Recover the amino acids of this structure.
């Protein structure tokens, strides 16, 4: 039996080839290429998985406890190595939550082990593991991990707080347990942390500069459509008038007609891009009604699918799986064309 404490971090990888190039430039050594199958089991606390590696005659039963937080954090792990013949009885006896198959490239860079993972059904990911010891504190390891993430071009929105087992289970819509299993909307963390730092009117600022940078997917004569970069669901957009008004009653007849015409165009574009089962369409007028930006009117258009998250604030027993904002922009820009 082996016990240890690491600092770990997981992130979505938008360009695996570029990551490989950066690792080579940093002097990282590729030490292995493995095909792994992990069976995640239902447990009341922490996470338990059985790992099988192609070509090896033994398996690993791994139990670990780690906070569901984006970014580098501590992880306590216990590993028990067993003969491969013991794998099948365990899979029959223990309730399986998810099965994760992946191709893992392992790199070594000093004290850091880096994994470039291609996970079946989920995509490309980066993992960092830094083993703690008498000569390396957790604070130092977290600082080292953050430095490496920056060099690899990992942004805050790429960080993933959950295990592959959680992501795979939520992808199936297998919530279970009567409570929230996965709530994953990575960009909303930036909003929660930095909302108080926003100066001036967001919707007035979005009218300036590059549409691609601001994620503006469509413009009409009096209003525009912009992606919500802290989305409640994939394809969530907002329709806002150019003029700085807080209430529909302040719009001219022309502006009001154009606003709702553009909402209709947004629904049509989202249908073409994502084929949702339904929509939530509405606005929050005033802070007491839940408006994040209360002095500039905007209409939320949120696509919905069976089994997805409710339109906030009804969040019990739900999950959010969000496509990267850049991919959303390209898909909707094309649909509006």
């Amino acid at each position: 039996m082996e016990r240890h404490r690491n600092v770990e971090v997981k992130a979505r990888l938008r360009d695996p080839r570029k990551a490989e190039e950066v690792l080579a430039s940093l002097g990282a050594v590729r030490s292995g290429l493995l095909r792994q199958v992990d069976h995640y089991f239902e447990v009341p606390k922490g996470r338990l998985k059985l790992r099988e590696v192609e070509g090896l005659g033994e398996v690993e039963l791994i139990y670990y406890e780690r906070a569901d937080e984006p970014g580098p954090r501590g992880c306590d792990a216990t590993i028990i190595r067993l003969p491969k013949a013991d794998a099948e009885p365990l899979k029959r006896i223990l309730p399986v939550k998810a099965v994760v198959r992946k191709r893992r490239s392992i790199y070594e860079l000093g004290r850091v082990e880096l994994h470039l993972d291609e996970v079946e059904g989920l995509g490309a990911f980066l993992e960092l593991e830094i083993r703690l010891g008498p000569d390396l504190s957790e604070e130092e390891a977290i600082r080292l991990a953050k430095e490496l993430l920056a060099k690899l071009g990992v942004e805050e929105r790429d960080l993933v707080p959950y295990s592959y087992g959680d992501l795979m289970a939520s992808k199936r819509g297998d919530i279970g347990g009567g409570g929230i299993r996965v709530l994953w909307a990575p960009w909303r963390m930036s909003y929660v942390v930095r909302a108080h730092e926003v100066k001036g009117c967001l919707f007035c600022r979005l009218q300036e500069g590059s549409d691609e940078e601001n994620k503006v997917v469509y413009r009409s004569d009096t209003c525009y459509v912009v992606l919500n970069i802290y989305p409640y669901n994939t394809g969530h957009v907002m329709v806002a008038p150019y003029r700085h008004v807080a209430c529909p009653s302040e719009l001219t007849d022309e502006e009001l007609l154009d606003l709702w015409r553009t909402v209709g165009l947004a629904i049509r574009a989202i249908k073409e891009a994502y084929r949702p089962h339904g929509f939530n369409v509405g606005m929050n007028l005033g802070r007491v009604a839940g408006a994040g930006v209360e002095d500039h009117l905007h209409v939320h258009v949120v696509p919905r699918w069976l089994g997805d998250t409710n339109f906030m604030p009804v969040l019990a027993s739900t999950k959010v799986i969000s496509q990267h904002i850049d991919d959303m922009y390209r898909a909707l820009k094309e649909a509006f064309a």
